Amino acid sequence: MSSTYGTLFRVTTFGESHCAAVGAVVDGCPSGLKISTADIQQQLDRRRPGQSHLSTPRDEVDQVVILSGVEAGVALGTPIALTVANRDQRPGDYGAMNTIPRPSHADYTYQMKYGVRASSGGGRSSARETIGRVAAGAIAEKYLHETYGVEIVAYVSAVGEIDAPWIDPARLTRIEVDQTPVRCPDLAASAQMEKMIVDAAAEKDSLGGIITCVCRNVPVGLGEPVFNKLEALLAQAMLSIPAVKGFDLGSGFSGTRLKGSQHNDLFVMKGDRIGTGTNRSGGVQGGISNGEPILFRVAFKPTATIGQPQKTIDFSGSSVVLEAAGRHDPCVLPRAVPIVEAMAALTLIDLALIQQTRMNRG
Predict the structure, then answer these.
(1) Radius of gyration of the chain from Cα atoms?
(2) pLDDT of residue 201
(3) What is the pLDDT of residues 253-299, one digit of tens each?
């Protein structure tokens, strides 16, 4: 089950970076949901490589094909199989690296765990694996939006040492996010980030950063009180994304510097419902959604594969100098925005369906 995520809305991804195709099987999608390839393709286009001068030059169309589970544009309630062909494969780029585990990559750990690994690219640890997540996440997001009005918007809030000013997430749209290739809605910060990424690429180096995500109109009651807390499942989902090294929600680590009297979210009336005047809880209290926007941040490390010479060792223990070939993003964050949105949607739809079963029993 290491490639499957979810309880009622289950997603199994398949494929490696240089195999014939990648994709996902979605089991548990409610029947009757209208689904088209266009619904899915929009998010895949935001994730695909080669979309700007800031991403890897690997030229993939990433056109999704729905193999099963949908007829005449309507979900049948049976497993939905989604596939995307790998067309611009260059496994020969990795021939010289077969005997050298790339620093901070998964080559060594995969070899030790399985005794074998994909001979080119990152195999299952490659960002190509996330195509299945994004395709499945687009289906989940459509259900959440049509059923509850949920809106999920992520954006790049930091690259390297450059932080974007605070952006009010209440009305932020994907159109605003996508107006720059960095996917940072603050134009001044975006220009600085873009220059830093271009400079890093010229130096055959890489950068990390932070993606901030907001989920609006999430119904109250999603999440379980103890081990399946909403924030715990979101953290698991985000930390499963390649290159992610950190997650925080609401006030996060900065909240530790406040006193309780400063940090507490006081209850107020918002129209005909109870809400909170502030949202330092990030939309989650006691592991359960409280109706406020869910706000979290995801930290991405610098891309592990770089073109600079690095002194390391091969699998036999001999010293070598590695200059990695292949095509790689100098900064993964712009393309990771729809991946973060997808994993948020997959987490929320699963919890929403679980909550529906509880309400139906009641």
Answers:
(1) 21
(2) 93
(3) 999 999 999 999 999 999 999 999 999 999 999 999 999 999 999 99
Q: What is the model's pLDDT at position 94?
A: 55
Q: Angle, to 10 degrees, between the axis of helix 37-47 and the axis of helix 130-148? A: 130
Q: Tell me what pLDDT residue 125 has.
A: 86
Domain range annotation of the chain: 4-361
* 157 closest CA partner among 189, 117, 195: 189
Q: Superfamily for 4-361?
A: Chorismate synthase AroC (3.60.150.10)
For residue 285, report the phi and psi dihedrals to the nearest 5 degrees.
Answer: -135, 130
C-alpha span between 246 and 238 (Å, rounded): 8
Q: Where are the alpha helices (DSSP H) in 117-186?
A: 130-148, 174-177
The H-or-E segment that residue 180 falls in is none
Q: For the whole model, what pTM was predicted?
A: 0.94
Beta-carbon contacts of 176 under 8 Å, excluding residues fewer than 6 positions away, are: 185
Q: Is the pLDDT of residue 196 over 80?
A: yes
- For residue 183, is it left (φ>0), alpha (ψ between -120 and 50) or beta? left
